[in-house]
Model the fold of this input.
Amino acid sequence: MTALLSLLLLGLLLATVAPGRLARARWAEREPVLALLAWQCLVVAVLLCCVLALLLACTAALPDLRTLVFAGAPHGVEEAYGLAGAEGWGRLTATLLALGGVQTAVALTREVRSARALRGARHAQLDHRAPELPVELTDVRRTGERLVVLENIRPEAWSLPGSKARLVVTTGALQQLTDRELAAVLSHERGHVRARHHWLAQCAEALATGFPGVGVFSAFRDQVGELVELAADDRAARKHGRITTALALAEINTGRGVFGSCPPQQLAQAPRRVDRLLAGVPRLPVHHRLRLTAAALIAPAAAVLLALAPGLAALL
Done:
């Protein structure tokens, strides 16, 4: 039972202590892609702890399953886990973890279906309101996304991901932005589509909705919403320059008070994003990025090692 208790304790620590420290990390704004990796590793580690603990709890609760799992294992490995005689605790733990797994699956399925339905409705609305530009004008064969111009006096731009991804700009944006600024805005939106940020957002939203009382999932959702914007800003800045991208971000949000973007939870992001682009803080050194990457990968690796530790110790 030591491995089972260790996995539960590790999952608890990762879910309570790590999110606050990672959210306060100063390097995240300089390396948003690396920060996204760190958050994903943290969430995967928490889920791994739950899944591996569920497996051990089931083997403790069901002797037949335990025999099947350890079939062919060297002598002493099964005894090292100490699962025999723990059927009662195993059933209780397995039931609780299984309920959490079912809740996760239901929340993720609901979120994916809801997102697909919303994207389908928005695609249908675009088909009705605005024709797509000809292929020779959008260069869809090279970029992979179709450009749609929507008649609206407000300067706006957004992307619709999916199998037929589209980049949408309004006539107000065409009038407000210069050619270079428009190219930076489209590069930003194309970055969201290419990096599949909508998949990450859906998973984060599903976990936060399915487990509203678990802080790590709520923090994951909030951080994903911010970091994907910074990552897309960096992509546009690398291609079109920091100043051009900052000007485009300011221009397209003119008249919104505090440069607020469309989602209400991101109302205060745009001014800070503009300041960040204008400051031009360089990226972290390569060796520093490698250390942070290794540190992020430690969390899921630790969960696997904890699950295997009793067996490995019995073989040594």
In short: The longest helix spans residues 87-129.
